[in-house]
Design brief:
The structure is a homodimer. Chain A is α+β, with helices and mostly antiparallel strands. Chain A folds into four domains: about 90 residues, Uridine Diphospho-n-acetylenolpyruvylglucosamine Reductase, domain 2 (2-Layer Sandwich); about 120 residues, Uridine Diphospho-n-acetylenolpyruvylglucosamine Reductase, domain 3, CATH 3.30.465; about 100 residues, Alpha-Beta Plaits; about 140 residues, 2-Layer Sandwich (Alpha-Beta Plaits). Chain A is built from 18 helices and 18 strands. In chain A, helix 9 crosses helix 11 and helix 16 packs across helix 18. The longest helix of chain A is centred in the C-terminal third of the chain and has 20 residues. Chain A is globular, with a radius of gyration of 23 Å. Chains A and B meet through strand 9, helix 8, strand 10, strand 11 and helix 9 of A and strand 9, helix 7, strand 10, helix 8 and helix 10 of B. Chains A, B: It holds the Pfam family FAD_binding_4. Chains A, B: This is Glycolate oxidase. Chains A, B: InterPro entries: FAD-bd_oxidored_4_C, FAD-bd_PCMH, FAD-bd_PCMH-like_sf, FAD-bd_PCMH_sub2, FAD-linked_Oxase-like_C, FAD-linked_OxidoTrans_Type4, Oxid_FAD_bind_N, Vanillyl_alc_oxidase_C-sub2. Chains A, B: Keywords: FAD, Flavoprotein, Oxidoreductase. Chains A, B: GO terms for molecular function: FAD binding; oxidoreductase activity.
Amino acid sequence: MNAITDEGLMRAVGVDAEQVVTELLKILPAHCVLSRKEDSRPYECDGLSLYRSVPMAVVLPETEKQIQDVLLTCRRLNVPVVARGAGTGLSGGAMPHAQGVLLGLAKLNKIKRIDAAAAIAVVEPGVRNLAVSEAVAPYGLYYAPDPSSQIACTIGGNVAENSGGVHCLKYGLTIHNVLKVRMITIDGDIVELGSLAPDSPGPDLLSVFVGSEGMLGVVTEVTLKLTPKPALARVIMASFDDVEDASRAVSEIIAAGIIPAGLEMMDKQATQMVEPFVKAGYDTEAAAILLCESDGAVEEVADEVARMEAVFQRVGATKLQVSESESQRLLFWAGRKNAFPAAGRVSPDYYCMDGTIPRRSLGQVLNAITAMETQFNLRCANVFHAGDGNLHPLIMFDSNSADEVLRAEDFGAAILELCVEVGGTITGEHGVGMEKINQMCVQFSRDELDKFLGVKRAFDPATLLNPEKVVPTLARCAEYGKMHVHGGVLPFANLPRF
Amino acid sequence: MNAITDEGLMRAVGVDAEQVVTELLKILPAHCVLSRKEDSRPYECDGLSLYRSVPMAVVLPETEKQIQDVLLTCRRLNVPVVARGAGTGLSGGAMPHAQGVLLGLAKLNKIKRIDAAAAIAVVEPGVRNLAVSEAVAPYGLYYAPDPSSQIACTIGGNVAENSGGVHCLKYGLTIHNVLKVRMITIDGDIVELGSLAPDSPGPDLLSVFVGSEGMLGVVTEVTLKLTPKPALARVIMASFDDVEDASRAVSEIIAAGIIPAGLEMMDKQATQMVEPFVKAGYDTEAAAILLCESDGAVEEVADEVARMEAVFQRVGATKLQVSESESQRLLFWAGRKNAFPAAGRVSPDYYCMDGTIPRRSLGQVLNAITAMETQFNLRCANVFHAGDGNLHPLIMFDSNSADEVLRAEDFGAAILELCVEVGGTITGEHGVGMEKINQMCVQFSRDELDKFLGVKRAFDPATLLNPEKVVPTLARCAEYGKMHVHGGVLPFANLPRF
């Protein structure tokens, strides 16, 4: 056991903001350094506005060499660095460190190369997700991962968070659509991870890097895998008068060997919240609806839609509607993709959770969340990637009430800990960041957290990159005081446990 | 830069074999410890018989607790440990360390749990790959990765090597079909990596572990993802009178948005070698044949086969034949899967390489290999996972001629280094092991190798697990004297290089 103590992660920050800015101005043009509070303020949080902090300085480098110089300078001064894309993250991962530098990558926004024959694009980290698909559309290609924030979020941020989206059930997460990453460590080492081949020799450091939430290095270039646009896509909207039936339908679709392009569930609270806003044509009387997409060649889609409909009927769908046109299909998705803003219309504030559970536990967990609504006296709409078992409960509260804020946080923690209990995880695609760092103590054992910290130090021995996030120290876990409840659903009773 | 010196990897092995065996007998029953040379000899090599070494002792534990005790004992005595499944690996990864203990996992061969509804199986590491598919067949399921050695190789070995197979183009490598791994570090820590959900919080240590070739820990339990058996599968055999046309057909199939269940190429040398042996019905007059499989629902297969045929015709296939029955389909594959034994029939020895290249470079690399046949004066048959760009050139030689052995090794090294030059990798699915450790110096920069070593130490600070394999020390690279030629095909001319 290589126990990590908090001492090992402590640093003496011996420099003040003025000194840091002076050093940064030696390596960057003046317009790339923001040091006045009013200029830095817009960077104080990401999409999770619960956590805010103004950094000592914001730097906006324009070249890879400048990024390297910033990292080497911060390393020398022993100053924390937090990288940031568009700041659309939902777990506080890009929240600045008050004694650190915020490294914005927005200016590195060039698509450097498109190779349509090989179906790859080489892009800088600040390129927006949707901009990639727009640029490669003339070649009949697109970039598959489509987080709801895709109009704004950047590829660098997607890499940091291993972002998903409504189509990741079939097309995978970011890790499945990234071939190579070029990045710089805090020591200024330029490292390329991955390759154009399907597998790389040696331990797979690309997979460790994608989703490492800015803890290991700063991305300077990403080689993306592009996907041919399908000839046709159609969405089935299936209504159910019982959430458990809808959940069972999800498992049955997968058990039938069908991998839908998307398979999303929304409960009645969610459809009734969204419909007046988007007018997507949702069945607002159903206890839950599923949106199930088939894409591919024309004949394939006809065949797959028929098979999907048969499953839904067998499981007891009360109503089935198949999109008749591309505009209707997009409208069905528009309702789903606008669920968060719709929540913002009906509640002063909402708190979006991101637990993942085995699909078989969907019904059980949804019923438990309903019971929690009474327990915490707060409403919760459920909108989620059902095919992945990735829940996005939207807890509605009013941040003007300190009591409601506390109840919302407790409600969220209770959902996440239930996810772990049924064999799931505390985050599907939004990352741990600041938000779920306590739940990491529940998800992982002391020995497992040790391994994360060991890998962290292999890349960042001084723990300067995005410190105090993602992986909790043992002291923090002791303080949080909740037990590790690993591996709920699988009985390992015949093995010793430590 | 955190330069790793060779000193950091050195150990003082201060104990002799007798002392090691004495200590092992304190924690294991006598029948689980082999210490006589004649008993250990069968473990001296794996499938790559070029490298042999007899260990100080072989242990064959029967429980997880015994594995943990072995590891803790070896850690205390500072003795290297090499884990072994069935010993079918092709890169010397399971070759014992002469001053170490060989840890055989064959006795942990129980399938502990099958959950057909969730499509998962929980197995011990010594379970054979094919035994999983056999056990779950009654539920209409199978385990997708199918290395050619699947009748003998174990799941633990598959995890160590991230094994593939002819169907991994569509169904993924081992990493894509493993949900969780339970493993023990050299310090006796029991660690579970991954989860039943599609993604896990924190850096993805499961992906780093799968394919780490026994360097990070010893697997004691694996949770596998099972796949529903398709209703139908058919194979097209397409003939081409030019290897470049066949290579282009591979790219065109993928560019058409088709993901075949398998897409394999064999050149004329290979078909002429295999046909007399297997009588698979191959077109032995063609310069190359492709085997292209479609699987799925009956209507889907009909549609996809038609689309595949259209692509092949457009690219200039001289002959197309579609399997008419399941037995003919299996016969088409039998030829491919028996290519290695067929090579053994026509040549005293053969050396199977495993480079991976971008699909677009297939034609260029195959032509270069043909030129190398003249240069090294040795024959080479090409049989490979074309869809993945994963080459398996079979270099034929006679090990009774020292000169032929040297030429075969140089031929192999030249192929691998060409793979790196065109942007590929030195290994696709067979691992680095002993065999390709020098080529790692060509594939990766000093800073990149440093990161591998850092991750290694995060799990195994004393570098006792499978030492001196996979990741070369800097001293070894200096001695090998070949340059790192990273990222051949992509022009990064506008970025500084280090």
